[in-house]
Amino acid sequence: MNELLRRLLFLPEQASTFARDVDNLHYFVILTTFVMSTAVGLTAIFFFIRYRRRSETQTTPHIEPKAWMEALFVGVPLIIFTAWFFLGYREFVRQYTPPIDSMDVYVMGKKWMWKFAYPDGPNSINVLRVPAGQNVRLLMTSRDVIHSFYVPEFRVKMDVLPGRYTQLWFNATTPGRYQIFCAEYCGAGHSIMRGEVIVLKPQEYEDWYSSQKRGLADRQDGQPTALDFAPPLGNLVDQGKRVAADQGCLKCHTTDGTRHIGPTWLDLYGRREKLSDGSVVVVDEAYMTESMMEPAAKIVEGFQPVMPSFQGKMTAPETAAVVEFIKSLQSDAVRTGPSEGPAYAPIRGR
Amino acid sequence: MRLSEADSHALSGASPVPDYLHDGTTVMSWLNTRDHKRVGVMFLVSVIVFFFVGGLFALLIRFKLLQPGPFFMDALSYNRMFTLHGVVMIFLFLIPAIPSAFGNFVLPLMLGARDVAFPRLNLFSYYLYLTGAAVALWGMIHGGADTGWTFYTPYSSTTPTQVAPILLGAFILGFSSILTGLNFIVTVHTLRAPGLGWMKMPLFVWSAYATSVIQILATPVLAITLLIVTVERIGGFGLFDPARGGDPVLFQHMFWFYSHPAVYIMILPAMGVISECVCAFSRKNPFGYKAIAFSSLGIAFVGFFTWGHHLFVAGQSVFVGGAFGLLSMFVGIFTAIKVFNWVGTMYRGAISFKTPFAYICGFLYFIVFGGMTGVALATTSLDIHWHDTYFVVAHFHFIMVGASVMAFLAALHYWFPKMFGKVYHEGWGLVAASLIILGFNATFIPQFLLGNFGMPRRYYQYPEHFQALNVASTAGATLLGFGFLLIVIYLGIALKWGSRSTESNPWGSKGFEWLTASPPPTHNFDEIPTITQMPHDYRTHEPSGVIRVA
Fold first, then answer.
1. Of the N and C termini of chain B, which has fewer Cβ atoms inside 10 Å?
2. Nearest to A145 among B155, B313, B351 (CB)
3. Are B76 and B487 in contact (CB under 8 A)?
4. Domain span including residue A208
């Protein structure tokens, strides 16, 4: 019965401890809605057939409802709606009261990606791994605008706000992969701000988690000085690559010459970009820095002014690293002129 | 046979003075008019134009959604498109549609008044509407906003698109709405005909009165909110943007404090129209007159205490969530009272299935289903899954298009002979009505299912398993589009070439607005009628078109 109704109503799989209870209420609510609307509809149809107009001069008696009818009109919806409310609110309180034994994961939303950090160190972009059968609490905040963390299979959703933390908890029952959606409109990349929850069997999760921690320890041990943050690795280009990934630059700018939300970074350095006001600018360090800090100042022709400012969001060394990374992205082909046109040659050897 | 001007007046029993349409035919006589009927007609034409603009945006959105990946337009254009669809439909169509267009036309007629209380202010309110529309259109052409019609901060205070002109446009439109509301309240208080006590007023007047109360109490809050966002964008003050020390959720509270009651600005007049039409086409007194009248005021009152149900997952406290959930149920109860009374009105009536009655049937089904899914959404735990998904989109379209637009169309057909003295083709009317009701279901039932399935709203791209339902919805929207087009065609034909209605009251309605000729003369009544009966009293039959002057 549950399975039949779930499929009829197009509800997703039930993969958390909430899902079944939420769905049961859902069935009850939809059922009463159907019964009520059918009842009203059928009554209207019956009245129409029974009381068709028979002549153009027909008169009708003056009828007013009796007190018991009025009581019925108020009472029936009152009882139905109060029942819905109390059943729903009990579940709502449960959903918003994380159990004490929950495992914490920190979530940061930003345009247009999800970052997950575990208290002991490992972190990941867009992929949240959790063990099945464990209460998990997410402590969430946003770096820029409001986002909303939504996993349909778990029937959970919570807004992710800048400047404050919100929390959400769930207990995933079935190992598998479930999509995370952003449910609060956040701009051009809103619909591709998706991630994935991977629910692992407890043992698999343990294995993954300890390997992550080991990797982190190895990296820290390999550094000459003990710092309380993971120190930058490698040269400026590698650092820039990592910063670009962390800051979400690569969500809009490709490095292989294909056209996306922003201009590609391949062969960007030294290119002559045609701007929306008709002028042409040669891409140098100053232009790239300005575009990061004040993106609306110069808009490349054919692109939309949607890039957020990174003023205050990236340190000076990080900015420099990104500039170096972009400079390193050169294909062999020598070209000048605006960035419009066919795709560039694929990048080699990188 | 075409009747001459004088003949038709003789038939309708009115004195041979020109009706309001022929009392001055120059453009200036329209632009400079103080006649509430002409202002109403100008509003009607404007809102219909904007309805088609907004509808075009909707069709473009639905066309894009045929494909899950990038298709037809880019993400930014798509985002602008749904923003403009929302802004145009809400601020330029739904809010003024019934109160400013039909309300202006029939409210003074129903009260037995010669005009509204402040005719100049009435015209000014129309020009404010045009100005607001022009400013908003200017913003749309110069970039357009990509914030959604809800303008949530801090996105709206940081996006580089043209948010300010759209906000300013909505701000000006708000004043148009306030002035209309003010005018109606004063009119109802001061200009009722002799004998027309409060408990004899037509139910449309009651709902227009309740709407006006919301308009003058809630709209200033929207104006303040939009102004603050503009100040934040232009002046850089941190009021809503946390990066500058503001509070983003404060915006949502202020916005919904207006925008939830605004939903009742859109639906209450629609309920008033249905109260009138159900009586006229069932030829029956309203069942539970007081219940219908007072539930309008009840909705207007409770509507102010439900805004928090938009914020169940926005981080407000669990207790506040519960309180708003419970309060939201009351709107459902008041609506249910009305629905039961409308159905009760048909009991032992004499029902004639004309086009407006087809829309009444559509309305009843949409308001019950849309209303109950609304209460379901206010059921806190269910909202967690549905919040900001297509389920919400489908729900509010059931109320705003399903219910409000059905009522708008019912009003358009019911009052068409009153306004223009012409009759439209009944057969085409029924064809269009069935197309629209069918197309509407085909558009929005799949969207309910998409919401259940977990598709968030405002999605440019979506995972492939949502495609089948999206295609079904687009097919329905096309049908819906054809239905609306058909109406414009046959009403246009009726207006230009249609036969003049031989009677001034073709429906045999006993609503007070039919006490005068159709179309009415500029001064409405040769002699102000004295009201001795309740509206829609069908116990006796009098030949239609007779002005009852006691």
1. N
2. B155
3. no
4. 103-220
